[in-house]
UniProtKB/TrEMBL annotation:
It comes from the Eukaryota. Its EC number is 5.-.-.-. Pathway: Steroid metabolism; ergosterol biosynthesis. Its main location: endoplasmic reticulum. The keyword Endoplasmic reticulum applies. It comes from Apiotrichum porosum. One of its GO terms (cellular component) is endoplasmic reticulum membrane. The gene is ERG2. This is C-8 sterol isomerase.
Length: 233
């Protein structure tokens, strides 16, 4: 290799290393400031869930997932008139399967931005798997059914019933399961794009369900871009 070629290779690699360092610094900076970007609040969400469960109880619709989800979306819309949210859960084109960590369920995206997402997630027949180790805090508000979970080392299960919240902290991993007809309002806040590889891995390497991958990407990207254009990260 001539001296010229060696020096041009060296400058190419130093540029790459420089870009990587800037990207890393940007990620750490964003991680430290993403608190400022949150518009949703776990307590307020829990209040909306409680209100929809109370209404179901009052009207003899206990355990009716359609009734509860419908009322919950109405409550969310009232609580967050300015947030960009999808509230027509009867639109089948907005529902997708999700395979992640060996578990399978279906989801309806209510809100997705760079630092937050809010979805209806669950399964009509139940599921079981790995929660994933995430860079976001996850609040799993049970609407119907039951969820069980435990951390390695624990010999007894945690039990989450309608009205309770399973808060999975950043970095914590558990095995979890849900009984048939378990539905939940799942809220994650943190650095959402870093969660996506986990959300897509089973589709890429196991199910090879290209249509589901396409629709999941289409809906997620559409919502994230919609939020970015409104200045919501
Ligand atoms: C929701 O209901 C649960 C169970 O009844 C209760 O513990 C919790 O404090 C309520 N939270 C809100 C925000 O209303
Ligand atoms: C459950 O709620 C939905 C939506 O409100 C309603 O159409 C349906 O009849 C209810 N199911 C039962 C078994 O009451």
């Amino acid at each position: 290799m001539s001296a010229n070629a060696a020096s041009s290779a060296f400058s190419k690699w130093s540029i790459r290393a420089g870009i990587l360092a800037i990207f890393w610094a940007l990620c750490s900076y964003l991680q430290s400031i993403n608190d400022h970007f949150y518009v949703l609040d776990p307590e307020v969400l829990h209040g909306c869930v409680n209100a929809s469960l109370a209404r179901a109880e009052a009207q003899g619709q206990n355990g009716n997932a359609s009734f509860i989800v419908h009322n919950l979306l109405t409550e969310l819309d009232k609580a967050y008139p300015d947030a960009s949210m999808l509230t027509d859960y009867t639109d089948r084109s907005e529902w997708v399967f999700n395979n992640a960590g060996g578990a399978m369920g279906s989801m309806y995206i209510i809100h997705a931005s760079i630092t937050e997402y809010l979805i209806i997630f669950g399964s009509a027949i139940g599921t079981e798997g790995h929660t994933g180790r995430h860079t976001a805090d996850d609040y799993f508000h049970m609407l119907t059914g039951a969820e069980y979970a435990y951390e390695a080392g624990s010999l007894v299960r945690e039990e989450y019933l309608p009205g309770s919240v399973h808060h999975l902290e950043r970095g914590v991993v558990k095995q979890y399961s849900m009984v048939p007809e378990s539905w939940a309002l799942e809220y994650a806040r943190g650095w959402i794009p870093l969660m996506l590889p986990f959300g897509f891995a089973d589709m890429m390497f196991s199910t090879l369900d290209v249509q589901t991958m396409y629709h999941t990407s289409r809906i997620t990207a559409r919502e994230m871009i919609k939020n970015l254009l409104r200045g919501k990260f």
